[in-house]
Design goal:
Blueprint (H helix, E strand, L loop, with lengths): L1 H27 L22 H4 L14 E9 L8 E12 L4 E8 L10 E9 L4 E8 L4 E6 L2 E2 L2 E10 L2 E13 L2 E10 L2 E12 L27
Length: 234
């Protein structure tokens, strides 16, 4: 009989614990299920850009017109780590490219007895709307390549600074285009040697015959706002 009483007490305790656990679980749950909110529209990280706007010419490229087109250049190359001193003549041709989003140019140096393997190079310029600067790149037949940038015209000068790799060495570069008139400009190229700018080329260029002269740029360290375009001649 004693055993039967013990069994009855254990059974009663088990039922009580089960009821207490169920009550605790019921109190922890909300009285009614919380409805799940429907997902909202996905947030876009950037505004949608139409294809038509991508094809529109970059207005900032208009500021490069004084140094684009067809040019004939004559100058001097002083002796430097790039080679011996010599006189040089070259033809430069550049134009708007890739739906007017870039300027693409070609420089071909004339062959002379002093320079039987003249330099040939290509460059590309564009406008960086984030950095508010012009950016460019250069490659040539010596295997040299470089990247550079410019804030725009300052005192009739367009100055590009950057880095180039030549013969396995990285070199700081500075190229200055100075507009003298609508048909004349000068060019000056320098490299940094032990922290000092060293001249490696200096010359003058004349716009090719039969090519319409471009207006000189408005002076501004950052090319904005754009100057009004010149009226078309009838």
């Amino acid at each position: 009989m004693h055993v039967e009483n013990c069994r009855s007490m254990i059974k009663t305790a088990s039922i009580g614990l089960t009821l207490l656990s169920a009550a605790a679980l019921a109190s922890a749950l909300p009285s009614s299920p919380t409805p799940i909110a429907s997902p909202g529209p996905a947030a876009t990280s950037a505004p949608v850009v139409s294809a038509a706007s991508l094809l529109w010419p970059l207005p900032e490229l208009e500021l490069l017109k004084p140094v684009t087109g067809n040019w004939t250049c004559d100058g001097n190359v002083p002796e430097s780590l790039l080679g011996p001193a010599r006189k040089t003549s070259s033809a430069q041709k550049s134009r708007n490219d890739l739906d007017n989003r870039w300027v693409t140019g070609l420089v071909i140096e004339k062959s002379t007895p002093e320079n039987p393997r003249p330099r040939k190079g290509k460059f590309h310029w564009t406008w960086d709307a984030v950095a508010k600067r012009f950016h460019g790149m250069w490659i040539d037949n010596t295997g040299a390549w470089g990247t550079y940038s410019s804030p725009g015209w300052q005192d009739q000068k367009l100055i590009w600074t950057g880095d180039a790799v030549h013969n396995g060495e990285k070199i700081q570069t500075r190229d200055t285009f100075e507009s003298k008139s609508s048909r004349e400009m000068t060019q000056r190229s320098e490299i940094s040697v032990k922290g000092q700018w060293t001249l490696v080329y200096e010359g003058s260029c004349r716009r090719g015959p039969g090519v319409a002269a471009s207006p000189r740029p408005a002076l501004s360290p950052v090319p904005s706002p754009m100057p009004s375009p010149a009226p078309k001649q009838k």
